[in-house]
Design goal:
By secondary structure, the chain is an alpha+beta fold. The chain is built from twelve helices and ten strands.
Length: 353
């Protein structure tokens, strides 16, 4: 079994691991699954879950705010997806759905998505144990006040059979530019499916890996404990980290790759217009350059943050108004330029040294 990853180990692998997510799916015993709920029943479920969270005795209760999804603008709703706080499916039909959001946005609880309750905890870097412990505490808070649908043989009952059992999905967000560039991701994806894991795009199922960012998750929830699932995910992630670093080392002397990295830095620092897809690709190259030690004074957190802040709906949410595509491209470029102000290339790496 893998050992618990400590803080220093998490820091050492932040060149590949961007963030950790733990998600629990839970349903109330006395109600049908959300797909069979009437609008009135959805409101009652939302009210029940909201009261359980806000009226509980946990120190977290006072830190949650409740968001009625139907009251959000389209930009505000899509921004929640871009910030990985809710799923794309959750905003497809916002009627009768609610969101409990912790003040620092590390915890979000979707109400009436595919299941009555989706508890989600996000932590930076690799912190599977820390994210799981917090999700488990919140799950216990609800369990003390709500009657969950549970079967002694099957475990937690969920609308989708693939979630029955623990109801837990654990994910790691990984930056894998070298493996993508080498064309290895197809073979890796096929191998992972045989091990009970899946690797997808930045926003989960059916999405593209923008900026070479992938989401690695467990698939098996029945017949396995939460800890076993976490250890399996951790072990496979460490293997991917080793492969990615080996691929980077092999590419480190490739003049075409280095050219792309330096061009990305120059474009991001001086461009007046940046499209979203272009920006994500350039930020991926910039992160690659930081990983290879080319750039000084640029940290992973800055790039990780930019990858979220440059998304279309989040840009408009932060500005507070609708923007045309060109206006978004202009503001996106300004946001990136400001973040990279005074960032330089080390002297010993200039001229391709």
């Amino acid at each position: 079994m893998s050992e618990k990853v400590n803080v220093n180990e998490r820091k050492d692998i932040s060149d590949v691991v961007i963030s950790t997510r733990i998600r629990f799916a839970r349903n109330l015993r006395d109600y049908p699954f959300p797909c069979r709920l009437s609008e009135d029943s959805k409101r009652r479920v939302a009210a029940t879950v909201r009261e359980a969270a806000l009226g509980g005795h946990s120190t977290l209760s006072d830190r949650f705010r409740y968001i009625q999804m139907s009251e959000l603008t389209q930009e505000e709703a899509v921004s929640l997806v871009e910030r990985h706080l809710v799923s794309p499916e959750f905003i497809s039909d916002r009627q009768g759905r609610g969101l409990l959001l912790l003040d620092n946005e590390s915890v979000s609880i979707m109400i009436n998505e595919e299941d009555h309750i989706r508890i989600q905890v996000i932590r930076p870097n690799m912190d599977l144990d820390g994210a799981y412990d917090l999700a488990d505490k919140i799950d216990t808070l609800f369990d003390e006040q709500l009657n969950f649908a549970f079967n002694d043989k099957l475990g937690y009952l969920t609308q989708c059979p693939t979630n029955i059992g623990t109801g837990m999905r654990a994910s790691l967000m990984l930056h894998l530019p070298a493996l993508k560039e080498s064309g290895a991701m197809g073979k890796i994806s096929a191998s992972l499916s045989k091990l009970g894991l899946v690797i997808r795009g930045m926003y989960g199922e059916g999405t593209d890996p923008k900026g070479s960012v992938y989401q690695l998750s467990n698939q098996v929830t029945l017949g396995i404990s939460e800890k076993e699932a976490l250890n399996n995910l951790r072990d496979i992630a460490m293997q991917l980290i080793t492969q990615e670093r080996a691929a980077r080392k092999a590419m480190s002397g490739n003049i075409a790759v280095l050219d792309s990295v330096y061009r990305a830095f120059g474009t991001l620092k001086y461009a007046k217009l940046l499209g979203n897809d272009e920006c994500m690709k350039l930020l991926s190259y910039l992160r690659f350059g930081v990983e290879m030690g080319i750039f000084e004074n640029i940290d992973f957190d800055t790039i990780n943050h930019l990858m979220i802040e440059v998304q279309p709906a989040t840009l408009m949410k932060n500005i507070g108004k609708k923007l045309s595509p060109q206006e978004r491209d202009c503001i996106r470029a300004e946001v990136v330029r400001t973040a990279l102000l005074h960032k330089q290339v080390p002297a010993n790496r200039r001229l391709g040294q």
